[in-house]
Amino acid sequence: MTQFPFDAEDQWAEDGYIVLRGLLPLTRLAELKQRIAARIIGDPVPNLAGDVDAAILNSFRRDTKCHQLSFYELGPSAFEIIFCQPVIAIATRLLGAEVELNPTQHVRVKLPTRLYQETVGRADPDVVPWHQDAFAKDPAPHLCDMVTFWVPLVSVHRVNGTIAVFPGSHREGPIKHDRTGIVCGLPAGRPRWITAEPGDVVVFHKHLVHGSTANDSLSLRWSIDFRVQAKGAFSGRDDAPNIPLPTEEPYCRTSLLLSWLAQQRAACGLLEGSK
Using N-to-C axis directions, what is the helix angle for 113-120 and 52-62, rounded to 10°? Predict the structure, then answer.
């Protein structure tokens, strides 16, 4: 069983989030980053050399949607992160129940905001307004016990558009959101910008008010995020299935992954084997 830092559960109760330092192996994260880059650039070989950020920025200038990826496109390396025992153990401990993977996940290669605005001529969609994840898709998920895992693949800070949270806002419970999914009125207190390194994992409550600001740096901000929920709970999404997460090693990651990918492709109307 993964051991929490001595004060993690107190911080979870007080602030509604915890930052677990060095939880995930850097080698696995580097592999995942290479796979993301390969999908964006169109290189069939994930072991890219040279300045990956520059290659992606050049691709973006040719195709402004090239950096928009679905999580399931990344293959086993992404799911090895989700299926690792520390993640499962932490979610199980926080939720107090057996867990499964919620169908909502994101790959975020956050471009420099100025470049996005100059190239596309509109606001950057990866600048995320204040919201609670319980209301991201449908009001029903606020009835579902779930936690969000946010995994940076590079150093993140306020300048390059890290996530920001209102500590303790989860204790206010569900907050009314408008039709676009933005909270109607901010909670008390001041936001806190999360600083983290590759290998760190930010875990937060479904009612924690959070968002992200512009990437004012000249580099890409890489991250993935996913949600883990109590087994059997309704996710709020009828268009995509949940996937069970095993509680003990060993288990067959490959069969679970292939089963889930097949369901996701069917739900999205994609042809089997398509990219």
Answer: 20
Q: How many residues does the chain have?
A: 275
Q: Are strands 17-20 and 210-212 parallel, antiparallel or unpaired?
A: unpaired
109 lies in some domain:
yes
Task: Give residues with Cβ within 8 angstroms of 58, minimum separation 6.
Answer: none
Is 110 within the bounds of a domain? Answer: yes
Give the CATH number of the domain where residue 215 resides.
Answer: 2.60.120.620
pLDDT in tens, 214-267: 999 999 999 999 999 988 877 777 666 677 776 554 444 555 555 555 655 565
Beta strands in 142-190 (DSSP E): 146-152, 163-165
Query: For residue 92, is it within any domain?
Result: yes
User: The whole model's pTM is what?
Assistant: 0.86
Q: How many domains does the chain have?
A: 1
For residues 119 and 62, give the distance between their C-alpha atoms in angstroms, rounded to a whole number: 10
Q: Is the peptide bond before 244 cis (omega within 30 degrees of 0)?
A: no
Residue 214 lies in a domain: yes
Residue 249 is part of which domain span? 9-268
Q: Is the dihedral of CA 34, 39, 272, 72 positive or negative?
A: positive
